[in-house]
Amino acid sequence: MKILIVEDDLMQRRFLQVMLTQSGREVMVAADGEAAWDILQKERIRIVITDWMMPVLNGLQLIQRIRAAELPNYTYLVLLTSKSAQNSIVEGLKAGADDYLIKPFDRNELMARLAIGERILKLEERLEQMATHDTLTNLLNRRALYTSAQTELNRSVRENSPLSLIMLDIDHFKSVNDAYGHPTGDKALCLVAETLLQNKRDYDLVGRWGGEEFLALLPKTSLADTRMIAERFRAGIEAAGLHMPEGRSVKVTVSLGVSSTASGSLDIEELIRQADEALYLAKSAGRNRVCTYAASGESVS
User: Fold this and answer.
1) Any idea what DSSP says for residue 133?
2) Residue 262: what pLDDT?
3) Is 289:230 a contact under the CB 8 Å cutoff?
4) Distance between CA atoms of 41 and 31, rounded to whole angstroms?
5) What are 100's strand-pairing partners?
6) What are the residues whose beta carbons fall under 8 Å from the beta carbon of 258, sequence distance 6 or more?
7) Is the peptide bond before 183 cis (omega within 30 degrees of 0)?
8) Domains within the chain, CATH numbers bracketed
């Protein structure tokens, strides 16, 4: 969890840097609010410890700018100042500071207050994980997938690059549940999730769309390359299989449908519908195969 120290006094800045580094924390420093703002645009900073009185952009102005920017993750802000009047404390907290320390401060008090901030941020991370991830497979859930798909589509339009989707469904999943029980069905879902994670690229996104359906988002990927990745998913899942306690192996296969903005659509709902249609055709053609949506309406196996 990165901590940014914003302090124009060199000795105070170095003191804080050494103290926090020795405590095992990852620390960055800035000499004023403007320099700190530049860092915040490039780095994922979770905690900012800032002095109030600084040139260029003071601590209060920096805090107000951070709060107005609505950064992707919450930033815990600690304001340091020699102002001890009650109205100054209220002013700092109203500006958006989470905590307030009066100089000269006690080292142990600062460390204790930082620990509080870290506990709050870790709780936020757990809540975010619960809100955006499927509890069984730990993949992105449907809501997070849809939001990510819209974001990636907007990026693909700006950059004039393709965005492709792979919709996949476990073949005869109900039969697995009926024959071996729901715990084995859950293992099959986790097997598919693990195989997708192992075979995707770093910048691809995969998640559980619902039930036994999964969705993969492939930015900057042509239709031909997407088919190759879909085939890699299919082959990897088929090769893995489920190993039962008594030594038996349960074969798991999936059917996959591929769609892409290369077909002409720039609407996320339509792209999902196309991938789903291609998936249906893969199932109709015998399952355990990849089908690609074509603009003509005829999909290619």
Assistant:
1) B
2) 87
3) no
4) 16
5) 79
6) 164, 165, 166, 167, 223, 226, 227, 230, 275, 278, 290, 291, 292, 293
7) no
8) 2-131 (3.40.50.2300), 142-292 (3.30.70.270)
Query: What percent of the chain is predicted at pLDDT more than 90?
Result: 79
Quote the CA–CA distance of 220 and 155 in Å, as a whole number: 10
Instruction: Outline where the chain has alpha helix (H).
Output: 10-22, 33-42, 59-69, 86-95, 107-132, 142-159, 173-180, 182-199, 223-240, 268-284
Whether residue 45 contacts residue 4, with contact meaning beta carbons closer than 8 Å, is answered with: yes
30-78 pLDDT per residue, tens = 999 999 999 999 999 999 999 999 999 999 999 999 999 978 789 999 9
- Return the structure tokens found at 209: 């769309």
Residues with catalytic function: 212
Residue whose token pair is 């489920």: 242
Q: Is the pTM here over 0.85, yes or no?
A: no
Closest C-alpha to 78, from 117, 45, 121, 21: 117
* Residue in the structure block whose two tokens are 């005869």: 172
Question: What gap in Å lies between CA 19 and CA 258, rounded to an integer?
Answer: 53
Which CA distances in Å does 295 have to 82, 162, 249, 263, 292?
A: 67, 15, 40, 5, 10
**Is the model more confident about 57 or about 243?**
57
> Which residue do the tokens 């840097």 mark?
17
Per-residue confidence at 301, pLDDT binned at 50, 70, 90?
Answer: low
d(CA 197, CA 245): 24
User: Which residue from 261, 253, 263, 255 is spatially nearest to 280, judged by alpha carbons?
Assistant: 255
247's CB contacts (< 8 A; 6+ apart) are none
CA 231 → CA 167, 189, 196, 258, 283, distances in Å?
12, 18, 11, 10, 15
Contact, 63 vs 75, CB < 8 A? no
SS3 104: coil
pLDDT tens across 184-215, in order? 999 999 999 999 999 999 999 999 999 999 99
Backbone angles phi, psi at 143, to 5 degrees: -60, -45
β-strand partners of 291 = 257
